[in-house]
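ok so for the tutorial part 2 we go from a plain amino acid sequence to predicted structure tokens. step 1 is just haveing the sequence, like this:
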Amino acid sequence: MTVYMVDDDLMFSRVQQQFAVSRQAVALIHLRNKTFTLCGVLSEAPLQQFMQLCQRILLCAEQAVPAGQQENPVSVQPSKQQELVDKTCRYIRQHLHLPLTLDSISKAMNTNRNSLAKAFKQELNTGVSAWLRQQRMEKARQLLMETSLSIQEISLRLGYQSQANFSASFKSVFQQSPLRVRRKSG
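step 2 — the prediction. this is what the tokens look like for a chain of 186 residues:
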């Protein structure tokens, strides 16, 4: 089992997202909020195994943060590469409605496509396009479950020119059609 300890929300969400569907056993601890989550194969662990892991996680957390520093954990400065990825992720989330490409995103970030692709691969272990697609699909699922927007409207809002392409992409990520998700949530 790997234990990651972070002290900011963005890093917590990045690590959680990276290992959400991993085959690894990962425990993620947010030092500032004093919360943790289990990722990968641990997310569906039996209760007894979960309790044993909780004890190990708490022991790791106590050893990592010396007494007297629990309220103010040491902050680690992100690298320029991490900052680029964080900035790019924020940009992508704010512009899901646009027909984004690696070239257009690189231009908006004032970098070249190779540097951006390399940074994403090293920081998130995925490509820019795959991350963009995942964000669009997560937003689509949210809109399907929480709004009455048509599937066509949702696909257009998320930068898809074709509802068929949107539906195929959605199905490849969630193994069910947008219509089926809509019916389940209604």
